[in-house]
Design brief:
Putative ribosome-binding protein YbzG; SH3 type barrels; mainly beta; 1 helix; 5 strands
Length: 74
């Protein structure tokens, strides 16, 4: 779900907290951390490499739904 918080389990960016900013397929999502990976250059991640939390950021979700973009993270 867009705006959902995720923890990276596998890869170079292991142990980093991210936000889901887009959904590509059933398996792949676009993620951003607000520093290295911003909304304008998100990273494609396999959801099997993420731990998805039930917590969804309503600010991010509303901003993406209303304007199609996000200006700030965390």
């Amino acid at each position: 779900m867009i705006g959902q918080k995720a923890w990276v389990n596998i890869g170079k960016t292991e142990f980093i907290l991210l936000l889901v900013v887009g959904i590509l397929t059933i398996i792949n999502v676009l993620t951003a951390d607000g520093e290295k990976r911003t909304f304008h250059s998100p990273k494609k991640k396999n959801i099997n490499h993420l731990t998805l939390y039930d917590c969804v950021s309503p600010e991010v979700q509303n901003s993406i739904n209303e304007t199609g973009r996000v200006t700030n993270f965390f």
